[in-house]
């Protein structure tokens, strides 16, 4: 892998920065500095300006309709994982802004995507995920083969105007990366490989195609999809929203980068927040990283010479050794300890290293004021054995608590803190009399997203 530093990424271009250890300084002090991957040394940042964002991007039905036409109907977007449809005949329904797309494993090495509608009178061909030998409409029985060719026209004598050779199911374009299946409804879209750019090179050491979906939770929010997404694109909110983490998170010392259609944040863990007025002990830092509450004993008692980052790295390697074997010896503390979270425009958020998290955000049905947040855990597995089956989606409604998804573990409690704010953000935006003002550096990922969004909505 060749990663070159963007010449615009010099620290002087950033201007002001928080006090405390910068991320590159922490890498220099890793207990295994020789194992720090080059991708963590990569830096690419350039100012995206300081202009405010119009609040209408979050509150306006008209803007939602503009997004539908200019973005969702034209952009590459993740629809499912390959392990969601592992066998021939497996199908997955992907819905976005009132459009339903049907993903089908039509052959062992082929995935196709069709508009999920019967060409007779429009009834959805498939209502749910599952396996099918054919794609038959439940209304009148029109039927297509898995490859999209027409198989049966009921009462064919009454349809002399239907040319069967021309009655294949209309397709969407398919792109594959990291075990994800992407679709694009625009027949004239740019190639997927061009759209995704250098992102695959960032995951060469941590291949996401060598994972399986061990958890998948989707929660509905009474907010615009961007309100929810942007709560998970920066560490700036930690000081107010997750204060229990401050002893062990370098929130304001996070590193932000962007290039092409993707951005990245790296938030160091096992190091104190510069917001604190005291210097926590290594034990306090480790307890914060491990989410140990005040009434709970430490998971590990640190002795002299042990550091929170070093112990976190050691524990992570021990856990991963069950799957990766000797390869864990080549993993740095940073890969085990830190939050390395990417965003591929417009709405996919895979995490780097061996953190299991991947997020997806999208509008709920065709609503500008409701959305879906999805959290998937992508687990590595023993490659000498078959890939484990993907779990089905566990849906949570607007009023459901994240802790009702126990498969998320301790993360559910953190999500509850985030979720408390979001409906109140949406309500507050309705009262805002000016634009949204963003930080220049700590909200880089949000600025980058809106910079790209602005380009998409201005396209012809």
What does this molecule look like?
This protein is of the alpha+beta class and 460 residues long. The protein has two domains: 21-61 and 199-457, Naphthalene 1,2-dioxygenase Alpha Subunit, Chain A, domain 1, CATH 3.90.380.10; 83-188, Rieske [2Fe-2S] iron-sulphur domain (Rieske Iron-sulfur Protein), CATH 2.102.10. The protein contains 14 helices and 18 strands. A hairpin with a 6-residue loop joins strand 6 and strand 7. 37% of the residues are buried.
Helix content: 10-25%
Question: Which residue ranges are poorly predicted, with pLDDT under 50 across at least 5 consecutive positions?
Answer: 4-12
Biggest sheet, open or closed, and with what strands and sense? Answer: 7 strands, antiparallel
Largest beta sheet: strand ordering: 1-10-9-4-3-2-5
Shape: globular
- CATH hierarchy class name of the largest domain: Alpha Beta
Superfamily at the CATH H level of the largest domain? Naphthalene 1,2-dioxygenase Alpha Subunit, Chain A, domain 1
The first-to-last residue Cα distance is 36 Å
Summarize the structure in short.
The chain is α+β, with helices and mostly antiparallel strands.
Protein topology:
Layout: H1 11-14, H2 23-28, H3 38-41, H4 56-59, H5 61-72, E1 77-81, E2 90-96, E3 99-107, E4 110-115, E5 130-131, E6 135-136, E7 143-144, E8 150-152, E9 171-177, E10 180-184, H6 192-196, H7 199-202, E11 211-221, H8 225-230, H9 238-241, E12 255-259, E13 262-267, H10 282-289, H11 308-324, H12 333-337, E14 339-344, E15 348-350, E16 357-363, E17 371-380, E18 394-396, H13 411-431, H14 444-457
Helix pairs in contact: 10-11
């Amino acid at each position: 892998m060749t990663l070159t530093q963007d010449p615009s990424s010099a620290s002087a271009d950033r201007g002001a920065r928080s006090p405390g250890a910068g991320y590159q300084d922490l890498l220099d002090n890793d207990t295994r500095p020789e194992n720090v991957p080059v991708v963590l040394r990569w830096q690419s940042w350039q100012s995206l300006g300081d202009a405010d964002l119009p609040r209408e991007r979050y509150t306006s039905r008209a803007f939602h309709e503009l997004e539908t036409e200019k973005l969702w109907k034209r952009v590459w977007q993740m629809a499912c994982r390959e392990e969601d449809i592992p066998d021939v005949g497996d199908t997955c329904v992907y819905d976005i802004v009132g459009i339903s797309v049907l993903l089908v494993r039509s052959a062992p090495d082929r995935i196709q995507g069709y508009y999920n509608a019967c060409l007779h009178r429009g009834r959805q061909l498939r209502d749910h995920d599952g396996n099918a030998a054919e794609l038959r409409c439940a209304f009148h029985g029109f039927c297509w083969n898995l490859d999209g060719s027409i198989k049966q026209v009921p009462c064919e004598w009454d349809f002399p105007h239907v040319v069967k050779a021309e009655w294949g199911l209309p397709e969407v374009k398919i792109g594959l990366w990291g075990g994800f299946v992407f679709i694009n409804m625009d027949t004239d879209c740019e190639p997927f490989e061009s759209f995704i750019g250098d992102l695959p090179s960032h995951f060469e050491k941590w291949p996401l195609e060598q994972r399986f979906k061990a958890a998948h939770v989707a929660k509905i929010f009474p907010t615009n999809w961007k309100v929810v997404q942007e709560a998970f694109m920066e560490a700036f909110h930690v000081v107010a929203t997750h204060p229990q983490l401050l002893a062990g998170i370098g929130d304001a010392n996070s590193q932000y980068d962007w290039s092409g259609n993707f951005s990245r944040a790296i938030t160091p863990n096992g190091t104190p927040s510069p917001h604190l007025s005291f210097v926590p002990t290594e034990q306090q830092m480790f307890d914060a990283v491990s989410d140990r509450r005040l009434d709970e004993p430490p998971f590990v008692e640190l002795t002299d010479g042990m550091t929170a980052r070093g112990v976190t790295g050691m524990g992570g390697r021990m856990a991963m050794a069950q799957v990766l074997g000797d390869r864990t010896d080549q993993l740095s503390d940073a890969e085990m300890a830190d939050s390395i979270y990417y965003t591929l425009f417009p709405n996919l958020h895979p995490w780097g290293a061996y953190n299991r998290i991947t997020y997806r955000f999208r509008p709920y049905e065709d609503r500008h004021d409701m959305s879906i947040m999805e959290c998937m855990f992508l687990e590595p597995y023993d490659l000498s054995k078959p890939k484990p089956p993907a779990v089905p989606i566990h849906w949570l409604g607007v009023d459901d608590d994240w802790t009702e998804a126990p498969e998320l573990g301790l993360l559910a409690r953190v999500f509850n803190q985030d979720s408390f704010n979001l409906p109140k953000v949406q309500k507050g935006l309705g009262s805002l009399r000016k634009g949204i003002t963003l930080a220049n550096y700590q909200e880089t990922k949000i600025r980058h997203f809106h910079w790209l969004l602005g380009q998409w909505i201005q396209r012809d």
